[in-house]
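User: Can you recover a sequence for this backbone? Please restate the input before giving your answer.

Assistant: Of course. Working from this structure:
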């Protein structure tokens, strides 16, 4: 493993254990170079990874500000399954509850979203994500059954992405996402532990295989106080 990744993991661990508390600054680049006996480029790669993962905010002429890791960092640009997010955020205890699992012909709205006809078959899966004892994410997945055959509730309770890539051998490549804030419905208030919140962060995602085949449309709704949606952007001239 590259050395910058080792530095990233060490610093990430210290932030999670609050050795570097939220609102404080990490040691300077020069201090980190001495601490890890590494080049400036290696240290900067580690810091960039921390920033893109939502652990720090790099501030010009000030350094690397440690962010509140009580919030779960959810990558905007990445295409990460909940199980993969759980593994990366190992400080959380999580569980997936399959609320409903249906197989049949899609309605007009889903036909349009998946670009399929009324005679096609689609899996409609509703999953509740429970983290540290609280139900804070509601996922609705609409999956083209012709492209992704053989799904069942057991697979849905574990990892659909793992099934697609490891069992079916279909590489997942990219997604197009849209993020909005929406009012929680009465059903969502019953399904989730909203603790008085009536707004949800809604992430709509069109998911594609490596050959650019659209296989899934997902609507994922998150309790707003529990997540930080992170992105690493580079200015291009």
């Amino acid at each position: 493993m590259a050395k910058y990744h080792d530095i990233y993991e060490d610093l990430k661990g210290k932030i999670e254990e609050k050795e570097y508390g939220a609102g404080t600054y990490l040691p300077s680049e020069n201090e980190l170079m001495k601490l890890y006996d590494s080049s400036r480029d290696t240290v900067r790669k580690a810091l960039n990874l921390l920033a893109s993962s939502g652990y720090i905010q790099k501030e010009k002429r000030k350094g690397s500000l440690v962010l509140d890791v009580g919030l779960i960092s959810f990558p905007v640009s990445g295409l990460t399954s909940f199980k993969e997010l759980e593994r990366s955020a190992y400080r959380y205890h999580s569980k997936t509850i399959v609320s409903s699992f249906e197989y049949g012909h899609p309605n007009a709205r889903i036909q349009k979203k998946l670009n399929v006809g009324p005679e096609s078959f689609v899996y409609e899966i509703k999953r509740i994500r429970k983290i540290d004892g609280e139900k804070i994410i509601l996922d609705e997945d609409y999956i083209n059954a012709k492209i992704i055959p053989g799904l069942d509730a057991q697979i849905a309770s574990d990892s659909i992405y793992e099934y697609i890539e490891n069992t079916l051998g279909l590489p997942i490549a990219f997604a197009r996402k849209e993020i909005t804030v929406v009012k929680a419905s009465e059903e969502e208030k019953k399904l989730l532990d909203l603790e008085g919140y009536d707004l949800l962060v809604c992430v709509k995602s069109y998911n594609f295989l490596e050959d650019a085949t659209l296989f899934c449309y997902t609507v994922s709704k998150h309790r707003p106080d529990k997540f930080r949606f992170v992105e690493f952007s580079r200015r291009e001239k």
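That completes the design. Residues 72-229 form a domain with the Chorismate lyase fold (CATH 3.40.1410.10).
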